[in-house]
Amino acid sequence: MKKRKILPLLGLLFTSYALYLIYTFYIDTNDNIKSIYLVPKDAVYIIESQKPIDNWNTISKSDIWKHLNTNAYFNSLSESLNKLDTIFKQDESTFKRFGDREILISSHIYTPGKYEFLYVIDLQKIAKLDILKNHLNTITTANYKVSKRKYHEHQITEIYDIKTHETLYISFIKNQMIVSYMHTLVEASIDQYLEPEIGRDLDFIEVNKYVGYNDMFRLYFQYKYLDDFIKIFSNDSGDLGKTLSSSLEFSGFSFDLDDNTIEANGITNFNDKANAYLKALEKSGTGTRSISKIAPKQTALYLSFSFNSFNEFNTNFESIQKENPEQFKSYIEGIEKVENFLKIDLKEHFISWIDDEAALLQLHSTVSQSKKDVAIVLKTNDSDKAKQNLDFILEQIRKRSPVKFKEINYKGYPINFMSIKGFFKLLIGKLFKGIDKPYYTIMEDYVVFSNHPNTLKSIINSYTNKETLDNFEAYKDFNDAFDSRCSVFAYINAPNLYNSVYNFVDTNAKKQLKTNKDYFICFPQIGIQLTPEKGFFESKIVIDYEDPDIVKTKYTFTDTRTPLKTNTASPIIEITEENLNKEIIFNIPEIFPTDLTAKEFIKKHPNGKVKFSVELKDGLKHGNYEEYYRNGKLKISGKYYKDEQNGAWRVYNFEEDVVFKKRF
User: Fold this and answer.
1) Model confidence pLDDT, tens digit, residues 331-390
2) Are 174 and 194 in contact (CB under 8 A)?
3) How many Å apart are CA 300 and CA 293, to the nearest integer?
4) What one-character-per-residue DSSP string does 530-587 give?
5) From its phi and psi, is residue 152 left (phi > 0), alpha (psi between -120 and 50) or beta?
6) How many of the other CB atoms lie within 10 Å of CB of 234?
């Protein structure tokens, strides 16, 4: 009898539960909240995926992630996901239900120099069954301690890991589960529930609408916090970082991982206070990139700005400047000051010959002694017109400047000195303010400016040796992934950039660079493209991955060179009649003076004693040349005339007796 009574009761309970599930999943009104509404406002970037577990499995098996996972920054993200995996895999079926839901991962700077991640998981209607909430209460292993507390009427579950001494914080709001290893992020997420900010931001909505839900992942970047984010890894974000942080709002990308290439497509929008040059670029159409014809293969950064024409860009720039009367007044006063002083017309003598591209190049130079090899390259619409107008400007400068410098010729390319302060900052903006009183040369249809003449020599050497980007197969293949016309194009060669940066940072920074070298150079080529489109920029990023051990076989790195010892124990070889090689003794290597207006160039031995000194005239060797042994004794003497050896040249032994003499 009892069994007969129990069976109908069980049937009734089963039917009731089935009806409850039908009601919950098919009849009950949808009372969900979007994941983005729970992301705190200070998110630096947000990664979104509809199938996080499937996609994560794909990513985690890739060569890229296997390499990056050994790095502290990326490992912290991976460890967090793995810990979530460990906790929820105590109930495999529960974890699977959790894993098939949309997930957002956002990165936040919670204190200067430190960051942490927040995870928002959309459980959809499964959340109503309280499966995960109940599951958290059953975690009673020896490895974890579970406790609860209230924050603004929302329960936060705290799971303390006894081994790692870390606490995982979890809370539920409607259909969403929010998780972080930083309690302030979970609390900030709860605060967003009633008054969401990012999710209601019109700029974010514009980007989100464009990106859609294609591909494996979506990435959103908020530029407001870019400056702070860069300072996690560097003391100074630089002018470019500050400009982007103050000018841009959001970038949104959808992307896939294809073999060893990451390709992302999306848009970037900017705010009303954006840099005037950025606004002018958006209004000035696109141009064709071609400065790669003369950019050296050793280029670390090729930052190209292109437009229908520079004249149109300049007109748009001045129009935008007028929106800020005080700023426009300062700009006009600067222009008039230069024009009145030099008696020139900048639009006629400078702007008129610039075509549709201007670029900033940073090099890893093979000859320059400067710390930063940076050049500005302007494409001309008529190289003869450019030369004629630049010659006129130079003549006006010579009339009003005490600096006297004659044109020098290097491998058939004339190098001149433009002694005019603040010229490029005035015309092109703060990004180019580092080029001040530059040297310049004209190559084909391009005018190249740099503070350091040896940077120009590096570019000329690369061009004459056909070692340019256009002759670099890896660059040509990589460049095919981008449109030939755009507004902004940035090409980064990570190995060259590594060498360039390594040359001018201090000892501590060198140590950090070497420690993280493999994570720096494993993406040998990175490209970013912006194309104007109705108030925003269509954006594209392409990143190539290559095993760092393979990269090291393709590039020479400055950090692997054996440093010279100041107190070397190697013997000094005295030149005698017995060991003298008369054929090569007077083959003096090419020198690269850093100041072409200097009267003398001196180079020293590692012990501080003079290695050689030579008199200069207009940057050329002209006058006495003296070379010394490491012990300070005279080794070679002679004279130059207009960069050519001239007259009697002599070689000396330790007693400074003449061993050999030759007349040129």
Assistant:
1) 888 888 888 988 999 999 999 999 999 999 998 766 655 557 889 999 999 999 999 999
2) no
3) 15
4) EEEETTEEEEEEEEE---HHHHHHHS--GGGSPPPPTT--SPP----TTT--TTTTT-
5) left
6) 12
